[in-house]
Amino acid sequence: METAFDRFNNRKAAITFTTIFIYCSPSTSSHIALRPKTLLIYNNEQLCSSNATATANSNIGHRLITSSSSETSSTTTIVIVVPSRRKNLMQRNLIRQTYGSIRTVNNVHILSVVFMLGSADDPKDSKTDPDELDAESRRFADIIVGDFVDTYRNLSRKSVMAYDWLTSYCSEADLVVKTDDDVFVDIFKLTAELSTLPRTSFESFNFWCAVHSPETIDRNPKSIYYVSRAEYARKKFPKHCAGVGYVTSMSLVRRIAEEISKSFRGPICSHEDVFMTGIVPEKINSNKSEPPIRFANKMSEWIFYIDKDNPNQDGKYIWEVIDRPVNKTLDLSEFRKRSGTRVFYLLQHGPDFKRKFLRLWYYVEKSFR
Fold first, then answer.
1. Closest CA to 97 of 78, 113, 80
2. HEC profile for 24-88?
3. pLDDT mean values, one per 10 residues, the chain (369 residues)
4. Strands (DSSP E) found in the chain
């Protein structure tokens, strides 16, 4: 039986990789139709439904953990969106085994963890086995695939696809959490904080994130982060969220998706975090709409860079802890103190990334209990 991936692969001979200018500014012509939505090669419209959650719980071993005596009717619902490279099966499986295995905790219900992929490999990457990817999608049913090449420069297209998908198929979520597939999320601390938000926050136009303001633009043509003056003429990017992880309301996701559809109808800026959380919100705010989009800066409270050379002593401590032998005991009170309120952990890449990721999960889950 021919799958969606097979149908796409049969068309690959027609694909050419073309360099185009990507502009960060909104369209000015009033004669262009609304921006078309990304063609979905692989979709699951039921990912956020209760039936899909029940099926996933039985197939993948999702767990319900309650930190209080009862869950109430006012439970907050969230969806976690993870842009992922096609080749990153290991990272997706790590997420499924760890924080992605939790469905209810701290009076917060996680409707789904959704991975967003492109339909063709970056020419610089090793080729992904389409049968393996198809088997992964059939088994977990948590992958959305859009019709574009899975490159760094197409991350904005992937995020636009994610926002469109969320508004179409997951609008029942109160909040959206966006993170990357190489980021560890302390789901216990994240949900504990989100559970304290007043319900008025769900209709707000806020980003909770590490705020970059303003950020100098990389003009080096050899850099992956390069932006030409033709693409964006200003010297600095507007205030925006770091892509490592942020939270926003479904109301704001919908508002941004609508603005992109009507105002950014051509090629879009390749810097996904800048475009989605900076350039588009700036355009919306320039219209003097009410209420304006606002940022709650969570840089010091939420973001944790974990590497062996980290000048931050807490970050260095966490690195050393997850590098210890399995049989070495851990002072959980010290671990809780050092990790503080941090939610998004960006681990240094290396050959032992998997081992460190799983070790960090073991300690985080143990310290929660």
1. 113
2. CCCCCCCCCCCCCCCCEEECCCCCCCHHHHHHHHHHHCCEECCCCCCCCCCCEEEEEEEECCCCC
3. 42 34 53 82 89 48 54 80 97 98 96 97 92 95 96 94 97 97 98 95 95 90 86 89 97 96 86 95 89 95 90 91 83 94 94 95 92
4. 40-42, 63-64, 76-83, 102-105, 108-121, 143-150, 175-179, 183-185, 206-212, 215-216, 236-237, 240-249, 294-297, 303-306, 344-347
